[in-house]
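Researcher: We plan to redesign the surface later, but first we want a full-length starting point. Tokens attached.
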């Protein structure tokens, strides 16, 4: 039955040729630490799935944000699972991307001709970090409030630009603007960076250990 469906699909899309080409690609023998790029991508996909699920129930309003999350977690089937996967997935994603960066740096895989791979990877790490910061604000519970306050106080201590950045953060990272940043702006930036990163990896391949 499955074979017939596959044959029917292949006759119309040519999927067999595509899958055969992918299977024929050589996979270099590397250590476990070379898997963190793929692990990061898997976590990103899970974050997208759980994030889209949560969009149907979350309300980006200071008075309703926490209530909407409580409703989703306690009354919506599997809502608690989606929320916890998304919340802990953010921490795991940050750790996975950071480990990937450290591995690339340690292996000196950022050398010619892979400089653009490295730059796009660092930018993705910064975007993931902004994902975490903007996501922390959204529940608007005691943890979100104090995390927000700590970051504002920290930014204000920066020399020369501290006062400007403090006003920028206070004006930008309101709940609604954080919500738009979290679900629209940052995903678009990450998608562009990921697409470019994959093209560079495909072009130059995975570097050999030095």
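Model: Full-length starting sequence:
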């Amino acid at each position: 039955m499955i074979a017939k469906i596959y044959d029917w699909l292949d006759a119309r899309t040519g999927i067999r040729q595509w899958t055969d080409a992918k299977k024929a690609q050589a996979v270099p023998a590397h250590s476990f630490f070379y898997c963190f790029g793929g692990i990061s991508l898997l976590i990103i996909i899970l974050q997208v799935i759980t994030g889209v699920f949560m969009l149907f129930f979350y309300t980006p309003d200071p008075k309703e944000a926490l209530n909407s999350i409580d409703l989703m977690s306690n009354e919506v089937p599997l809502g608690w699972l989606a929320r916890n996967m998304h919340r802990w997935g953010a921490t795991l994603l940050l750790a996975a991307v950071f480990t990937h960066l450290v591995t690339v740096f340690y292996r000196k895989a950022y050398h010619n001709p892979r400089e653009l791979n490295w730059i796009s990877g660092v930018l993705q790490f910064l975007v993931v970090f902004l994902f975490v910061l903007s996501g922390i604000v959204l529940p608007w519970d005691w943890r979100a409030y104090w995390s927000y306050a700590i970051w504002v106080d920290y930014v204000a201590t920066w020399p020369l630009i501290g006062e400007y950045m403090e006003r920028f953060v206070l004006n930008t990272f309101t709940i609604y603007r954080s919500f738009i940043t979290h679900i629209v702006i940052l995903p678009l930036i990450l998608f562009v960076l990921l697409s470019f990163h994959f093209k560079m990896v495909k072009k130059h391949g995975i570097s050999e250990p030095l």
